Amino acid sequence: MFATSSTSHYRRIIVKLSGEALSPANGGSGIDPERAAFIGERLKAVHAIGAEMGVVIGGGNLWRGAGGAARGMDRTTADHIGMLATVMNGLALQDALERRGVDTRVQTAIEMNKVAEPYIRRRAIRHLEKGRVVIFTGGTGGPYFTTDTAAALRAMEINADVIIKATKVDGVYSADPHQDPDAKRFDRLSYDDVLDRKLRIMDLTAFTLCQEHQMPIIVLDFWQAGMLEAAVRGETVGTLIGPPR
Fold first, then answer.
1. Per-residue model confidence (pLDDT) at position 85
2. Strand 185-186 and strand 172-173: pairing?
3. Domains and CATH numbers, the chain
4. Could you give the CA distance from residue 173 to residue 211 in angstroms, rounded to a whole number?
């Protein structure tokens, strides 16, 4: 373990970020270096707490496979382009972290040895044990799977304690809080609660994988100062989804 004075409640975490997190703040597409820098600072603060941290980032700011397929492209080809987009985002995030002194490795499920390491489970775990942040890119390596599913799969493989789904909202609500002033935010939900209420936490394949393997999920507002760090310290923030108490 790389930290001897950890204040983290969790030994090892996966942070799931959407590709749109790297988009310009004005709502455009692409990679905004200023947004990457902001994300780098926030992840650095979590790293300093002492948790071993893996990151899975999407590619939606650059390309969505489902969108390409909807416009007539072969779905497998469209998804392969999306996987490459996640590698681009991973490299941008690595740059932001390493310029802040955080040793980082990008691993990809699609081999491109001159750009990033191939995903090898034991190597990823060893990096984490040495205190390096590991950014998992390339999705699962196959088409038809989202980066939510990649996050769930990598969390199982590296024996993470929790998946933190970083969003723009401070948890899971009973209804859209922007449209319903009476919407209730949940502090905790069971997997069955989520399914019974038909709440959209992540895609069903990813969620079912978490449910089957009892992997906790925390949904929180990544952009709210201190919320991510508080969650890693075990404080009650956002919404925790897990087995019934």
1. 97
2. antiparallel
3. 12-242 (3.40.1160.10)
4. 20
